[in-house]
Recover the amino acids of this structure.
């Protein structure tokens, strides 16, 4: 138990100071510890708690984790591991459990041997969860006994005590997030489900059960069991399940190089985007890093070498047409997941999701290079399909450059380059400026009249834009609406370098707001637009520039009282508040579309920064987003309709 010691004689690092300050610091500046206090931070509490159980599973002592959303929005996480130790810490005169629950960063500090690869984005430990909860109950099932301690805002209410007997083994944590700290304390099943599914894929063999005990409208509760026997092999198949495979195999490796465990799975499909998902210690490294660099290098070199050795005729033909293969051509239609474990990860970048450890590049490159070389040598038919696909990608890319050049000849700022339909704002500071992408010319007209023309620009688009998920890269640039959006934003694509990467240096607005009707069509257009941004301008989302406006569904009026309601629940609350929950006596106007609102109403309800409700689009879980987009935009109509019906938060105006 020596390792429980936190201070390391004389060496006063930041973490020492945090320990001295205690959990009060977490409550004072929660965002510093869990990222933010929005819905995202709220869900992080669950991840942090589950990560401890995952660690116990990775150490080989736990097979089942049960996560429950209770009716009162508290969360229970129970595992069948060894149970957090409860014996007394000699110096502190406290139970080890109490130390874990009340001392910052204590969680992973003891029993080092089994905590090689602790997960958790912020690695803050379960004590942070405790600090940010009005109440928390810890139970440990060990040696036939149930040990228990409860806390309020992180402070123990009593010493660890035995409260009963049990045949079970493991740890059970229940917490009630503090509503004076979090903007919302309502958990979303789908957000938790996506992460639990992901954790199950990333940690083959573990069973994670997610249960939602809050009854839905029909009084039903929900439960899903996540378990993957084949790990990443199943993960890529899941991500790619709505795409057409180039061939059925998953190229798979699971090995260790230079002490780094490396697992990767690769699949090729007939579509045109690159879907690379990378993880370090179960954390989604959205910004990539050294492991991704190693992966890409291996892919490029191995395939290039294979083509050089086996496909000389095809390469000669390319050369004659002045087409050179570039790195990204190897990744068109590629879906891959790579997951590695690093003992001391260095996370860098804007969101601390970029791996910096330089030793990782070589290890991953070697592992992937070997596995891919073996696969290609043993599967000449599949290898040929890949090479053909790469050649097609290179050819298309050159065509794309030509299309782009014709688009970008005019500079956006020279005046002539802005799309004619754009009603620009007068301010020139992008940080202050917003661009609304508005569905339909009539709503566009209202928006133009209702806006604040200093900082709000309006770009009307006509009906459904084009599904970029189903076209080759360069085809999108030939589409007028897509072009208008790209030009109005001032986003540019590497003209000379044939790069798919967008350049945002001249981005003209820091808020891009999608404003569509609150119906199924509007939802579909939102999805098409989000797909465009996700595939062509992902950084714009990562930097937090993309938003969705929320127009009201109703205007409710009782006597002189008048309020806009943004969903069914809001309308119900209006009825409760002003009319005893009764419909008769209340005048309700339903808005079927943006076009029904006059310019003043549109400003007041949807555009005025002081009163509007904007939803920010984030890519928290890129793999889940990838799956959803390919499913929504894919050829199969069934799952799409089902998803829209389930998720569309809109009243049954037209259903
Ligand atoms: C360190 C040592 C031991 C168990 C754990 C940590 C542990 C922590 C958590 C957190 C959630 N579930 C957990 N399960 C286990 C056990 C040491 C021993 O028994 O010898």
């Amino acid at each position: 138990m020596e390792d429980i010691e936190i201070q390391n004689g004389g060496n006063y690092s930041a973490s020492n100071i945090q320990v001295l300050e205690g959990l009060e610091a977490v409550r004072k500046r929660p965002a510093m510890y869990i990222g933010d206090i929005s819905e995202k931070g709220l869900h992080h509490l669950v991840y942090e708690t589950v990560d401890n159980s995952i660690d116990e599973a990775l150490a080989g002592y736990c097979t089942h984790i049960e996560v429950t959303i209770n009716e009162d929005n508290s969360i229970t996480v129970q595992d069948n591991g060894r149970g957090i130790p409860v014996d007394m810490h000699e110096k502190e005169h406290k139970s080890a459990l109490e130390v874990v629950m009340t001392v910052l960063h204590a969680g992973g500090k003891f029993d080092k041997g089994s905590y090689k690869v602790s997960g958790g984005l912020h690695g803050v430990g379960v004590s942070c969860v405790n600090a940010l909860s009005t109440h928390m109950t810890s139970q440990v099932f060990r040696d036939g006994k149930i040990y228990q301690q409860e806390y309020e805002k992180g402070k123990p209410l009593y010493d660890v005590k035995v409260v009963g007997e049990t045949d079970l083994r493991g740890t059970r944590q229940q917490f009630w997030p503090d509503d004076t700290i979090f903007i919302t304390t309502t958990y979303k099943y789908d957000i938790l489900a996506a992460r639990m599914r992901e954790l199950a894929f990333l940690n083959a063999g573990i069973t994670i059960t997610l249960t939602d005990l809050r009854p839905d409208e029909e009084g039903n509760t929900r439960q899903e069991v996540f378990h993957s026997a084949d790990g990443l092999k199943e993960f890529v198949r899941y991500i790619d399940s709505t795409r057409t495979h180039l061939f059925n195999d998953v190229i798979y490796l699971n090995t260790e190089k230079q002490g780094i465990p490396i697992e990767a799975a690769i699949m090729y499909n007939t579509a045109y985007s690159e879907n690379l998902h990378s993880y370090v210690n179960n954390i989604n490294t959205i910004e990539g890093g050294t492991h991704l660099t190693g992966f890409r290098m291996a892919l490029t070199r191995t395939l290039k070498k294979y083509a050089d050795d086996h496909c000389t005729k095809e390469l000669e033909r390319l050369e004659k047409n002045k087409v050179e293969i570039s790195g990204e051509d190897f990744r068109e239609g590629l879906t891959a997941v790579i997951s590695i474990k690093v003992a001391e990860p260095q996370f860098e970048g804007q969101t601390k999701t970029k791996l910096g450890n330089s030793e990782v590049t070589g290890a991953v490159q070697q592992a992937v290079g070997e596995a891919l070389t073996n696969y290609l040598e043993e599967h000449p038919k599949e290898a040929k399909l890949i090479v053909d696909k790469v050649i097609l990608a290179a050819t298309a890319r050159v065509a794309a450059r030509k299309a782009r050049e014709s688009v970008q000849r005019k500079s956006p700022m020279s005046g002539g380059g802005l799309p004619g339909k754009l009603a620009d704002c007068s301010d020139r500071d992008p940080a202050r400026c917003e661009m609304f992408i508005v569905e339909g010319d009539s709503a566009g007209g209202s928006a133009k009249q209702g806006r604040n023309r200093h900082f709000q620009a309006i770009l009307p688009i006509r009906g459904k834009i084009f599904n970029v998920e189903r076209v080759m890269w360069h085809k999108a640039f030939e589409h007028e609406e897509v072009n208008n959006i790209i030009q109005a934003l001032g986003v540019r694509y590497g003209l000379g370098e044939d790069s798919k990467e967008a350049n945002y240096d001249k981005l003209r607005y820091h808020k891009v707001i999608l404003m569509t009707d609150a119906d199924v069509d509007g939802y579909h257009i939102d999805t098409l637009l989000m797909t465009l941004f996700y595939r062509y301008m992902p950084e714009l989302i990562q930097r937090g520039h993309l938003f969705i406006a929320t127009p009201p569904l109703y205007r409710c009026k009782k006597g002189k009282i008048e309020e806009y309601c943004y969903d069914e629940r809001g309308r119900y609350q209006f009825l409760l508040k002003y009319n005893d929950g009764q419909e008769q006596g209340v005048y309700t106007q339903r808005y079927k579309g943006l076009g029904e609102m006059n310019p003043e109403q549109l400003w007041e309800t949807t555009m005025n920064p002081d009163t509007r409700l904007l939803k920010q689009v984030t890519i928290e879980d890129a793999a889940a987003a990838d799956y959803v987009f390919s499913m929504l935009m894919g050829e199969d109509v069934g799952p799409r309709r089902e998803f829209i019906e389930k998720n569309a938060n809109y009243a049954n105006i037209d259903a």
Confidence is low (pLDDT under 50) at residues 1-20, 107-122, 410-416, 650-655. The first strand starts at residue 64 and ends at 69.
